[in-house]
Amino acid sequence: MRAGFAALAAVGIAVTGCTVNPDPGAQPSVASIAPPPSPAWQPCGAGLDCAKVTVPVDYAQPAGATLQLGLVRHRATDLGRRIGILLVNPGGPGAPASQQVQSIVAPAQPGVAPPFGPELVARYDFVGMDPRGVGASGQVRCLSDAEREAKLAGDLNPSLPAGLPRPELEAEARKFSEACGRSNDRALLAQLSTDNVARDMDQVRAALGEETISHLGTSYGTLLGATYATLFPKRVRHMVLDAPVHPERWQQDPLAASLDQAVGGEQLLQRYFETCQAEGPACPFGAGRPAEAFDALVKRLEAQPLPTPAAGNVPAGKVDGAIALLAARVAMFKPQLWPVLTLGLVAAEAGNGTLLYRLANALARDPDGKPSGLEEANASVNCLDRAVPQDVAAHDRNAEQTAQQAARFGNLSSYVLLACASWPAQNPDRYLGPLTGAGAAPILVVGGREDPQTPYPWAQAMADRLESGVLLTRDGVGHGAYGSSGPCINDAVRSLLSGQAPTDGTTCPQVPAASAKPPTGG
What is the pTM of this model? Predict the structure, then answer.
């Protein structure tokens, strides 16, 4: 399950030795490239259209090789009040934006709010552009389905850094990077950096005949949004950056960023324990001592794993200590998953690991149950963005710090960047900032005080660096605030996207407050 922890940490894998070009004006100019023709939209589901837009693989050679970007669109439902297009990106990197737009028309699930409010759906054409190398835009593929399954089924020891003996760990990292170089077009692999994705966004804007775009980016999607606002400030109409990465730390000190994320997850797990304990008998795990019960359960499962039966396309597996830790790490993403974790832990204590197994696999599998390529796309994008040290000793020191500061999650969150030392592609023109968005319209930066993936100081830094940044704080827990934290956040985002930014420094409560207790009768 090491792939799952790497994707969760969203730290990816990077190439070293790349030069930094601090001047956005020195980058290839999209303005000098003829816009692509208007896309030929075709119906691809109820309320959805799909199309392709052709862009250069390398913007420094616009007449050279090309790439087709996959788009999914949901038209504004009230065309008389239509504002324009809203490009969304759910993060990763490696998560397809097309799936986020498809969720607009997905059947409603009990207790799950729609992904976007009705006012936004009424007034915007939602456009999901799968970033280059992701989904329908030249999907990076390093491993076969069988190899992905084997990796997910790998037996990790949570007492070891990265769950593996050091020689085996280094061999696995090298094998993975070599597979990515062997299985993909090297020319494309070298052009998957975020600044190129931002240029793709502007080509899509031009192809759609729009003077400006609006953008709603979450997690890594905030880096994409801030990069777009810096390279094309006058093309920004409205922009919301939810759960932002740190504008410098993410790219220029990624080992420190990975430590921040491991510590953030650990702190939120402690908050889960405190919440469960405070709720008393209503939270039926641990008899008032959930932290001790969790540690005992992880130890027991590592000694005696629970077999889990096959279900649909998900093969049979087992729940050991590493899987239980991964399930808990996944549950820290959203407080709505806390009751699910409680039920899974109670069931595992009784000998049934099925729910924990499903929770642990949530980010590692596609909706059809097949193992996803998130880790491969994540690595391929991040490897061109982030200045990961090539010196393995730096990774050793980071692993030691991570284990010390994150007692439960630290080991399995270590060495997630090790494959950078043998990554097969480089891009000497990558853009690493500064991300100022100088000249852009107000940009709403939404940060959560307790976020397990993008800590609150990262949001403060992003709002501070962006010249038109406006900070909105969610006083609550979980990764990302819009659509899951209550009306105060949702109303502020809707107002900004309609042209009215909230006051800088506004704080919103989380509604409802996080709870670890299962639903009545659950």
Answer: 0.92
